[in-house]
TrEMBL record:
Pfam families documented for this protein: MreD (PF04093)
Compartment list: Cell membrane
Regions that span the bilayer: 34-53, 65-90, 96-125, 132-156
UniProt similarity note: Belongs to the MreD family.
Keywords: Cell membrane, Cell shape, Membrane, Transmembrane, Transmembrane helix
Superkingdom of origin organism: Bacteria
Signal peptide: none
Name of the protein in its database record: Rod shape-determining protein MreD
């Protein structure tokens, strides 16, 4: 029951990033910019930084598979990349004190690694024809900016949710 509020928040973010956000970013005629909301993943990174690795790892597998099933033609790419990146970011976070700046940097690092893993897997199996420079300029930079803004906005609310959840142990 103590994780129910967290699950509801992550599920609502999943719904928002998959239904509401594409209306804002994909309806423009400028197709040279691919701004992809990854709000659930950024929230999972913050949950892992504030809470426990096993919660972040489980939720990353769950929402990674949901992303694979609903949005992608290849099963397991997002589940693998999200779980691996959550683990790597958690290990890296043990070396720093978690402040707003360090959480923003770690979440951006995690998003960068996750996007590169997905791009490399799709490139290896022939699912994308996008060049590396096009990926970098048209996809990665706008996606990083959008999700960094979300991480900055959601830092304190997610920290409060994790502190209240941790207090119920």
């Amino acid at each position: 029951m103590k994780q129910f509020k967290l699950f509801i928040i992550l599920f609502l973010l999943f719904l928002v990033q998959g239904t509401v956000m594409p209306r804002f970013f994909y309806s423009t005629s400028d197709a040279s910019v691919q701004m992809v909301p990854q709000f659930v993943f950024v929230a999972l990174l913050l949950v892992t930084l504030f809470g426990r690795l096993d919660w972040g790892f489980r939720y990353s597998l769950l929402f990674g598979f949901l992303t694979d099933i609903i949005f992608t033609p290849v099963l397991g790419v997002y589940a693998f990349s999200m779980a691996l990146t959550v683990y790597l970011t958690y290990r890296l976070s043990r070396w720093v004190t978690i402040t707003v700046v360090s959480a923003l940097l770690l979440s951006n690092f995690g998003l960068l690694v996750e996007q590169f893993i997905v791009y490399l897997i799709y490139l290896m199996i022939g699912m994308t024809q996008q060049s590396f420079w096009a990926f970098l300029s048209a996809h990665l930079v706008p996606t990083m900016l959008l999700n960094a803004a979300f991480a900055l906005i959601s830092f304190y609310p997610l920290r409060r949710v994790m502190e209240s959840t941790a207090g119920k142990r």
